[in-house]
Amino acid sequence: MTTRGAGTSLFFVVVLVFSSSVAYVHSYGGRGENPLSDFIRIQRRKQIELLSSPGGANIVPGPINAAVNEQIDYEGLRKQAPQPVPDFPVYMEPQDGLKTADKIVSLPGQPRVNFNQYSGYVTVDGNAGRALFYYFVEATRFPSTKPLVLWLNGGPGCSSLGSGALAALGPFRVHKNGRTLKRNPYAWNKKANIIFLESPAFVGFSYSNRSSDFNSSGDTRTAHDAYTFLINWLERFPEYKNRELYLAGESYAGHYVPQLADVIIQKNIMPTTSQNMIINLQGLAVGNGLLDELLYMKSRIEFYYTHSLISEEMKDKLISCAPIVSNACTKLESIFEEEVTKDIMSYNIYSPACNSTSDSYNAPVCMNLNLYLHFGYEVSGIFRNETILERRFVD
């Protein structure tokens, strides 16, 4: 996979779509908003094109999907040739000595571990002073034989450090005290070397010195910056240059992952790319990916209906209300939010009823009780402590 000709075979990389359960659907990066209200607002704005695959996220295609799919010329889309990625200059800086400087001796309250970990910045645009923050953990056993995984959280705007590394697949979880760490028995670095990338700039600890970058970000620049990050990072960690690379993410990474893969694939075969800069991309993994928001939302309504959470009458009203702004539709949204889902965790309808140990963190009845809700709140303790951040992660 390190030869230029082999790059073309990467168009056939395996795409893995994973989910934790049938009932778990896209979580909007953990913001806890109500997806149906979002769907109705999106329909009113008319900003989304119907260019997704049938079913949407984890949902089995059904009558609503069939009706929507009739509007889409899938055969025509399949015949469209892939659009080439325009070439762009890749900013590069000397990386000598930075790997050693990035090494983390230990994290606060960390149990003893048998793997190396690093964190630091990689500049992706010298003129703008734009730099992306990463946290890297090597595999627990035989890291030199394990593949490399780049993890991207979605949102857009969710931290791959706070959400990905410390609340999902990283080597540690945060204790309830918000200051110390414990081992994560489901850590992915048991099987691979993992880079958690804060992307794009202004997400997490990533930044730009050019304030206009805040309003000019987009998927194209995000993909270019992530590619530039990889090229420089592989110079900083040259032992991983020819390693098998997998791109993985969730939620809005349904955009980030395939778009970055497209850049890598096309850059690999460009004559301007030196042999030393070819990336050994092997596959992709997207969990609960947001590929097309409008079609996904229609699938979500069908999910509620086919699981007896809403009536057929409610389903039809929600669909018909989507493009309409009216008091009646606003009232319908309120009825759904306040009555239909008040005792249900919408991201896992089979979750236990709300109590002090429940994971139904987004159910209104739980939030109204002001109980200790464990999901995500422990991590905030780490990020409120400047000493921990400066001395352990970003110093």
Structure description:
- By secondary structure, this protein is an alpha/beta fold.
- Among the domains are: 98-287, 3-Layer(aba) Sandwich (Rossmann fold); 292-348 and 364-386, no CATH class.
- It is built from 14 helices and 9 strands.
- The strands form 2 sheets. It has a 7-stranded mixed β-sheet. A two-stranded antiparallel ribbon has the order 5-6.
- Helix 8 (253-269) links the parallel strand 8 and strand 9.
- Helix 2 (63-69) packs antiparallel against helix 9 (293-306), helix 7 (219-236) crosses helix 8 and helix 9 runs antiparallel to helix 10.
- The protein is globular.
- The two termini are 36 Å apart.
What distinguishing features does this structure have?
disordered N terminus; two-stranded antiparallel ribbon; globular; Rossmann fold; 395 residues; single chain; alpha/beta; 13% strand
Q: Care to give the gist of this entry?
A:
The protein is of the alpha/beta class and 395 residues long. The chain has helices spanning 35-45, 63-69, 74-79, 98-102, 160-165, 213-216, 219-236, 253-269, 293-306, 312-321, 327-340, 364-369, 377-384, 386-394; strands at residues 14-18, 117-125, 130-137, 148-152, 172-174, 181-183, 193-197, 245-250, 281-287.
